[in-house]
Amino acid sequence: MQFSALQLATMLDGKLEGNPDVKVSNIAKIEEAGEGMLSFIANPKYEEFIYTTNASILIVNESLVTEKPVKSTLIRVKDAYSAFALLLEKYKQIMSNKTGIQQPSHIPASVKTGQNVFIGAFAYLGENVVIGNNVKIYPGVYLGDNVIVQDDTTIFPGVKVYENCVLGSRVILHAGCVIGGDGFGFAPQPDGTYKKVPQIGNVIIHDDVEIGANTTIDRATMGSTIIRQGVKLDNLIQIAHNVDVDTNTVIAAQTGISGSTKIGKNCVIGGQVGLVGHIQLADGTKINAQSGLSKSIAEPNSALMGSPAFDYKSSLKSQAIFRNLPDLEKRVKELEDMVKQLLSVREGV
Amino acid sequence: MQFSALQLATMLDGKLEGNPDVKVSNIAKIEEAGEGMLSFIANPKYEEFIYTTNASILIVNESLVTEKPVKSTLIRVKDAYSAFALLLEKYKQIMSNKTGIQQPSHIPASVKTGQNVFIGAFAYLGENVVIGNNVKIYPGVYLGDNVIVQDDTTIFPGVKVYENCVLGSRVILHAGCVIGGDGFGFAPQPDGTYKKVPQIGNVIIHDDVEIGANTTIDRATMGSTIIRQGVKLDNLIQIAHNVDVDTNTVIAAQTGISGSTKIGKNCVIGGQVGLVGHIQLADGTKINAQSGLSKSIAEPNSALMGSPAFDYKSSLKSQAIFRNLPDLEKRVKELEDMVKQLLSVREGV
Amino acid sequence: MQFSALQLATMLDGKLEGNPDVKVSNIAKIEEAGEGMLSFIANPKYEEFIYTTNASILIVNESLVTEKPVKSTLIRVKDAYSAFALLLEKYKQIMSNKTGIQQPSHIPASVKTGQNVFIGAFAYLGENVVIGNNVKIYPGVYLGDNVIVQDDTTIFPGVKVYENCVLGSRVILHAGCVIGGDGFGFAPQPDGTYKKVPQIGNVIIHDDVEIGANTTIDRATMGSTIIRQGVKLDNLIQIAHNVDVDTNTVIAAQTGISGSTKIGKNCVIGGQVGLVGHIQLADGTKINAQSGLSKSIAEPNSALMGSPAFDYKSSLKSQAIFRNLPDLEKRVKELEDMVKQLLSVREGV
């Protein structure tokens, strides 16, 4: 797809400087952009690139002052970063603007689908599945019986959603994630074996949630595992049965949350963090990457680090001394020698 | 599906109190149950809910004494928890009682299938695959050539089993897990590149094993990676080539076991644990979440913690002092000052 | 498939001792090999097995001296290990020698395919996908629009590659890995919600790369996430947007690399390691399993350990003292008592 400078300037309500007919078919960072590409300069520290870039079109701030001739066609707008982000979004929308139902796909008569839906080949919808408007279901997706998918949600290839789970509106599920697998519940028996505890609950994912590739969210034993509005989960995260993650919490890759733990609103949890089961985190809790948490956090906006985790600043101090433990041990050894000497002197006296 | 109180009471051989015709179509925890739902009370601390719940039917212990009128229809049984668990299991069985072979699926003429089998659409069976009785293969499953699946095993959607692997009876593989991918074996070459070591072994999974979503178990270089009877693996676990996990061991999510390590019977391994290769764990070893183990454990029933891990109780003590390292350092500083003073006094003398 | 001793000896240019007609259909380690199996002895410490093994054929070094009668047919070659590895490789090639296009698969008219290609059933190729010669695409693979796959690359079942990504020659992608999912980029808004930053870049995987099962590699925000020639990634690894991993670097399972981090050539990174974003690792950096790195490493061939990681040897020392922290604390306590005593004595004087 190609756009001319004139088209883009019109779209962005910007002022055009240079050749209005030059065309771009790709987007790149200023330092990497070549001919036929569109880029932007918002940050003054990148302004030097304006004289050397091969980008055919540049979006810049109205206020930008050029001191030498510029090869690229410029489009001047109030806020170059926002204008560029807007274009990116439109570009992404156009690129992923798929509709229609491809064959073969498995769609029983009991399924209800909304308008303007995309269902890719090899997608499998169970009995009584309900699909809202503008939903995109990529190839190879599996939706179990009675799954509900609300409007404007996108499910990327190979996602598996077990029966009875509910996905809200504008949810994005990335490839390979698994929603609603059985929680890890087993009752130990006297002979050392384990008996499976049936997991008959479901997973409910509220609006505006994004879930990364190959992340797994287990169904509740009874009731629901809940991911609330605006939560963003990265790749390869494990969410166990009956967990509840409250609105606008962000969790980085490879973190694991054990069963029945409740995470507050607006928390920020780093990568590879582990949380034990049955604890609560207050709103705004921040947890450093690779930390391990085994206790509830009652105070909102706490920052924690370490495995086991404690207060971030104290943890930093302990870590600094840990690095110098051999030195501390040496100081103790020297003290021991000196004190021994003092004692012997005293005894000598 | 609906059940009347009379049907359930008959099924459980229980005594009915209240309306025998009231019907339920769902199951919930006592504190969340509404009209049309079935719940139970086994633990005395939940007995207070009996007067406030909207559950239409409650399973309770024979011995339960009510002091006020109860809205719900009661079914009295010897052991309310066991009776409820039995119902859950039956419910789960009914919900997942799929049979038949859906089209399109890929089933070569060389495949042998038992009786009462379910094979979902888009499932792919390689040459010479053998499927036992009552096996359920969900949509989008891939079984490579010569894979054997024994009776009553369930393979959830999108599971991939590479060629020549063997699955026992009553095995459950959750969505997206990968059985039999190549072990991570590369021979370093003089020029800094790596040469792949062909991985020609397989994976053998014994009876009654359950494996979580997106867990990966690599095939052996030669011989077999073995998961023995009754082992339960959670989601996103990595089991490397030639590992052997002995009976009734339980491993929590995101743990990784490196190549050729042997884990004993009835071990309990927490989440996000890492084990290096070529070590052995004695039966009954317990490892705390996020620990890292680099040495064999010879003593049965040991408990370990930390990265690197050591004895659980000692590890707790070291962690407690770690939290107070700044304090310990301060005490050493004070000692240094005092000793310096003592020395100067002595020299002054 | 069966091979006679004569066939194998001819293939390996080896000298045959024993029955030239004996046949093998399987391969095993010397200590596990039975009748009808082929094995080898390269390491002198396994030579004792030569008199007890039931292997039908053994590949041994020319120089091997036998002192008692041997049941197995021997094939003597210059280097038994290399000869055996060669056979393994040929065996693996024969076992996986699939070609042809199975139906149903989704291959739009705009797709270009090379010669001698295998495309399994339920594979989905997007518009304008380009497939080189001898490429194997297993069942259930998804390749988004414009994906390029170069010669001799193998994509195992259920791999998902998002649009515009590029795979080099002789690449191996194991089952369930996800290439090109959206990077985890969200702009925090004043109301506490997050706005998705469109991820319009791609992933480029160079020649001779192998990527493990269920590993995830995110597409760049702009530009490319790059995995360079000869890199080997194990299972369940997370590579974030705009990461660059240089040639011949090896990364073990469950490690996570955060956004825009650059890893040098010939690095060796253990399992469950975490790297923060926007750092650089010099060539030859070695990082111990479960370490966490938050700073760039400028010195080539550094070895690091710990979370947070520092110099390997110092880290070992700190860990050793950590194990004995209760002892160190006790020594400090004793010093305090002694010094208190000394002070009181002095005051007493």
From TrEMBL, chains A, B, C:
A Pfam family matched in the record: Hexapep
Catalytic activity: a UDP-3-O-[(3R)-3-hydroxyacyl]-alpha-D-glucosamine + a (3R)-hydroxyacyl-[ACP] = a UDP-2-N,3-O-bis[(3R)-3-hydroxyacyl]-alpha-D-glucosamine + holo-[ACP] + H(+)
Entry annotated with the keyword Repeat: yes
GO BP annotations, alphabetical order: lipid A biosynthetic process
A GO MF label: UDP-3-O-[(3R)-3-hydroxyacyl]-glucosamine N-acyltransferase activity
Limits of the UDP-3-O-[3-hydroxymyristoyl] glucosamine N-acyltransferase non-repeat region domain: 21-89
Keyword Acyltransferase attributed: yes
Family annotation (InterPro entries): Hexapep, LpxD, Trimer_LpxA-like_sf, UDP_GlcNAc_AcTrfase_non-rep
Enzyme Commission (EC) number: 2.3.1.191
Residues the record marks as active site: 241
UniProt entry keywords in alphabetical sequence: Acyltransferase, Lipid A biosynthesis, Lipid biosynthesis, Lipid metabolism, Repeat, Transferase
Domain of life per record: Bacteria
Enzyme class: transferase
Stored NCBIfam families: lipid_A_lpxD, PRK00892.1
Self-association state and partner proteins as the record states: Homotrimer.
HAMAP family per UniProt: LpxD
Name recorded for this polypeptide: UDP-3-O-acylglucosamine N-acyltransferase
Phylogenetic classification of the source organism: Bacteria, Pseudomonadati, Bacteroidota, Chitinophagia, Chitinophagales
